[in-house]
């Protein structure tokens, strides 16, 4: 095929597509990225103090053999194998004393639903009664909130699932679809939960990501960097798309350059692509209704020692600005300048404009980490570095009308030689993890050049029923 292929965006999907084109020895292609680096939400950064930071908490695990083989080839022995040690932190619960050193808050092993035996008796009883009631009667869910209540019952929903998801999504849960969730959140095994409670057993190693990999150096961004030799001859950085003419097949960049294409692989946010194009008003209206949230990432690097094997934790209470933290120095000792340092990454989701300043969010995060005893008060004066990153696009929200909108947008684009893929290109959170994103780029090239099936994309074209009894691999984070 002698047609020209252009890739918009050099996140994992764009770099994956470029890598596959190079492996095909295809010559007529270019890739454009608006930022001065590759990797998108899976990029990493090193600050002047020697700390490495990710855009939130990423881990490498997958049930897809092809992805695992590729990661194995890219990283080889330069990856660490880590056992998950995660928790849910609850500030106040009825019927018991708090259980951290300051007497404030409860650390419950993750996954929460399997470890409710660590709750005070009154809260434990609420959760057990709710689980039993849900098992006896669980009508079909019409939205995400109903699904949570139907699967977990009132107790677990009240203490963790509802408040956590409200902080994560920043969107009404009763206006979110339930069809996506079967791929991302496993159902409760009631017998297993009761057994754990009776035997007073921790069940912290359950789930698909109980063991994961992480690059020894460079953070998650090392994956994209190791793909760079395959794509750098065709890579154009600092190229922000200003507009696109879908009829003429031309892209206009902010620096004045105009680029033509025969086939476009777009990995930029779908709504941004459509709104800045000459698509019909009905398609633009559909794109304008796609919803997403944004993220602020705060990193805190400390000169001091931290004696814990914890990997990450969830904070559903409104008391804390962040919904999740990552013990990033526990992922690799190379993420900090040397021995005697540790680092924490906190994630703060929102919708709309950020209301607080960078300095305000950093200070609020540090105070919250100290209050929860994640950072010692004595270490406040030993903070060696702070990191702040703001990203407009964090999670594509699976609203009730999402599929209706996508059915209007995506076929329109593909009929004009535009393949929109990736976390925000396809706008499906359920196939928005790193493995999904990288493989979408690879598979769309194989589809274009050879007509091969896109297995990741097709896995959601017929959504699994939310009432399915099959247990999917557990996926946490991005």
Any overview of this molecule?
- It is a single chain.
- Strand 10 (241-245) and strand 11 form a beta hairpin.
- The chain is built from 13 helices and 19 strands.
- The strands form 5 sheets. Strands 7-6-15-16-17-14-18 form a 7-stranded mixed sheet.
- The model is unreliable at 463-478 (pLDDT under 50).
- Among the domains are: 5-41 and 219-290 and 399-458, FAD/NAD(P)-binding domain (3-Layer(bba) Sandwich); 86-203, no CATH class.
- 32% of the residues lie in helices and 20% in strands.
- It has helices at residues 12-23, 65-75, 121-136, 144-169, 190-198, 222-231, 270-275, 281-288, 358-371, 402-414, 423-427, 434-450, 455-458, and strands spanning 5-8, 29-32, 44-46, 52-54, 79-83, 86-90, 106-109, 211-215, 235-236, 241-245, 250-253, 258-260, 263-266, 292-303, 312-314, 324-326, 341-350, 383-396, 418-420.
- With 478 residues, the chain is α/β, with parallel strands linked by helices.
């Amino acid at each position: 095929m002698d047609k020209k292929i252009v890739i918009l965006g050099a996140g994992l999907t764009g770099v994956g597509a470029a890598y596959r084109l190079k492996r095909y020895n295809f010559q007529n292609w270019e890739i454009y990225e608006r930022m001065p680096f590759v990797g998108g939400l899976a990029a990493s950064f090193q600050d002047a103090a020697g700390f490495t930071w990710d855009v939130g908490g990423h881990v490498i695990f997958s049930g897809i053999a092809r992805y695992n083989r590729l990661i194995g080839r890219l990283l080889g022995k330069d990856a660490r194998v880590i056992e998950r040690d995660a928790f849910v932190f609850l500030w106040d619960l009825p019927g018991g004393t708090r259980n951290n050193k300051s007497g404030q808050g409860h650390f419950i092993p993750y996954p929460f639903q399997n470890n409710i035996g660590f709750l005070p008796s009154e809260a434990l009883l609420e959760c057990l009664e709710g689980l039993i009631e849900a098992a006896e009667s669980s009508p079909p869910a019409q939205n995400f909130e109903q699904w949570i209540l139907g699967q977990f019952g009132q107790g677990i929903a009240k203490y963790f699932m509802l408040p956590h998801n409200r902080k994560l999504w920043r969107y009404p849960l009763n206006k979110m679809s339930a069809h996506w969730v079967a791929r991302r959140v496993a159902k409760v095994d009631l017998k297993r939960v009761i057994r754990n409670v009776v035997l007073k057993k921790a069940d912290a190693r359950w789930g698909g990501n109980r063991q994961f990999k992480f690059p020894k150096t460079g953070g998650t961004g090392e994956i994209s960097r190791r793909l760079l030799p395959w794509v750098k001859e065709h890579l154009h950085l600092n190229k922000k798309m200003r507009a696109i003419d879908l009829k003429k097949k031309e892209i206009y960049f902010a620096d004045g350059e105009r680029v033509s294409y025969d086939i476009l692989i777009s990995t930029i946010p779908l709504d941004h692509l459509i709104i800045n194009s000459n698509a019909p008003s009905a398609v633009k209206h559909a794109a304008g209704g796609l919803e997403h949230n944004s993220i602020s990432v705060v990193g805190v690097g400390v000169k001091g020692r931290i004696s814990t094997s914890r990997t990450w934790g969830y904070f559903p209470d409104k008391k804390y600005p962040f919904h999740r933290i990552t013990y990033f120095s526990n992922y690799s000792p190379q993420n900090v300048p040397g021995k005697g340092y540790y680092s924490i990454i906190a994630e703060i989701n929102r919708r709309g404009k950020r209301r607080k300043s960078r300095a305000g969010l950093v200070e609020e995060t540090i105070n919250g980490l100290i209050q929860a005893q994640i950072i010692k008060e004595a270490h406040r004066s030993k903070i060696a570095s702070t990191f702040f990153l703001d990203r407009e696009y964090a999670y594509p929200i699976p609203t009730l009308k999402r599929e209706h909108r996508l059915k209007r947008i995506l076929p329109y684009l593909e009929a004009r030689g535009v393949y929109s893929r990736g976390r925000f290109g396809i706008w499906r959170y359920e196939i928005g993890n790193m493995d999904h994103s990288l493989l979408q780029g690879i598979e769309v090239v194989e589809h274009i050049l050879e007509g091969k099936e896109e297995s990741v994309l097709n896995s959601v074209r017929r959504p699994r029923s939310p009432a399915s009894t099959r247990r999917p691999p557990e996926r946490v984070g991005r």
